[in-house]
Specification:
The complex is a heterodimer of chains A (about 200) and B (about 100).
Chain A: H1 2-96, H2 104-119, E1 125-129, H3 135-144, E2 150-153, E3 163-167, E4 174-178, H4 179-185, H5 187-199
Parallel strand pairs in A: 1-2
Antiparallel strand pairs in A: 1-3, 3-4
Helix pairs in contact in A: 2-3
Chain B: H1 3-104
The chains are: A alpha+beta (about 200), B mainly alpha (about 100).
C-alpha cells in the first residue's frame, strides 16, 4: 500500500513538472516568435521611414534648385532688359539730336513724304518739330510738300523725340511719324536687332 | 498507514503539483510580458535610428542642393559679366543699327 502510494505521488509530481516544463517551453517559443515579429516590423517601419526621407530629400533638393534657377533666370533677364533699355536711351538721344546731323534734311523730307502719302489728301497739314531745328533746315522739307499742303512748326513734337504728324484739312485722318511713334511701331524689330547685335541671339 | 493518511498524502501531493504548474504558468506569463516589452524597445530603437538617418538624409540633401545653388549663382554671375562686357563692346554698334532701322524702315 505504502509503495503504490509513493508511486502515485511521484507520478502526480512528475506530470505536474512535465506540464510546467511544457508551459515554460511554449512561452519561450512564443517569446522567440514575438521578438522575430518585432524585428521584422521594426525593419519594415525603418525602411518606410528611409524611403519617405529619400523622396522628401529629392523634393527639398528640387525645390531649392528650382527656386534658385528661377531667381537667376530673372537676374539674367533683368540685366538683358537693363542693357536693352540703356541702348534704347542711346537711340533716343541720337534721334532727338538728328537735326545736327548731315542726314537730317533727307530724313525730314522722307518722313514728310511718308506721312503725306499715308493721309492721302491734296491739302495735307504737316506739323513738324525737331530739337534744335532751324528754318534753314526746313527749306528742303517745304519742297516735298504738295502745292495745297501746309507746314506748321510744332515744338510739342520734340517731347516725342521729334518728327512729323500729318493730317487731312479736317484733322480726321492722322498719321504720326514722330520718332517715338516709329520706335513703338518697330518695337519688335528693334528688340530683335539689339539682341542679335549685343547678345548674338 | 491508514486509508485516511493515504488520502491526506495524495491531497498534499496534488496541491504541490498545482503549485508547480501555477508557478510555471506565472513564469510563462512573465516571459511573454518581458518579451513584449523587449520587442517594443527593439521597435522603438529601430524607429529612432531610422528617424536619425532621415534627419541626416534631409540635412545632406539640403546641403548638397545649396552647394549646387551656389554653383548656379557663380554661373549666373559669369553670364551677367559676359553680357556687361558684350554690352560695352557692342553698344555703339547696336545704337547705330537701331537708329538706322528707325530712320529707314
Amino acid at each position: 500500500m505504502s509503495e503504490s502510494l509513493e508511486k502515485l505521488q511521484n507520478r502526480i509530481l512528475s506530470d505536474a513538472k512535465h506540464k510546467a516544463d511544457e508551459t515554460v517551453k511554449e512561452a519561450q517559443a512564443k517569446s522567440q516568435q514575438i521578438l522575430e515579429d518585432a524585428k521584422q516590423r521594426a525593419q519594415r517601419e525603418s525602411e518606410e521611414i528611409i524611403a519617405k526621407a529619400n523622396v522628401e530629400a529629392e523634393s527639398i533638393r528640387r525645390s531649392i534648385l528650382s527656386s534658385k534657377v528661377r531667381v537667376n533666370r530673372l537676374r539674367i533677364l533683368d540685366e538683358k532688359n537693363r542693357i536693352v533699355e540703356d541702348i534704347i536711351h542711346g537711340v533716343e538721344d541720337r534721334l532727338s539730336s538728328i537735326s545736327k546731323s548731315e542726314q537730317f534734311e533727307e530724313t525730314a523730307q522722307r518722313f514728310v513724304m511718308e506721312a503725306v502719302k499715308a493721309v492721302d489728301t491734296d491739302q495735307p497739314v504737316v506739323r513738324i518739330g525737331f530739337r534744335d531745328m532751324s528754318k534753314r533746315n526746313l527749306e528742303g522739307v517745304s519742297r516735298v510738300l504738295p502745292k495745297g499742303g501746309k507746314l506748321v512748326i510744332d515744338e510739342k513734337l520734340i517731347e516725342n523725340l521729334g518728327g512729323v504728324v500729318a493730317t487731312d484739312p479736317e484733322g480726321k485722318v492722322v498719321f504720326n511719324n514722330t520718332f517715338k511713334s516709329r520706335l513703338e511701331r518697330l518695337d519688335n524689330q528693334l528688340l530683335t536687332l539689339i539682341s542679335s547685335t549685343v547678345f548674338g541671339e | 498507514m491508514s486509508g485516511i493518511d493515504a488520502v491526506k498524502k495524495i491531497v498534499e501531493t496534488e496541491a504541490q503539483a498545482r503549485r508547480i504548474v501555477d508557478e510555471a504558468s506565472a513564469k510563462a506569463q512573465q516571459i511573454i510580458s518581458e518579451t513584449r516589452e523587449q520587442a517594443e524597445r527593439i521597435r522603438q530603437e529601430a524607429v529612432a535610428r531610422a528617424q536619425q538617418q532621415r534627419e541626416e538624409i534631409l540635412r545632406e540633401a539640403k546641403s548638397k542642393a545649396e552647394a549646387e545653388a551656389l554653383q548656379s549663382d557663380k554661373e549666373t554671375e559669369q553670364v551677367l559679366n559676359s553680357y556687361r562686357k558684350l554690352s560695352e563692346e557692342r553698344k555703339s554698334a547696336a545704337v547705330s543699327k537701331a537708329v538706322a532701322l528707325i530712320l529707314n524702315a
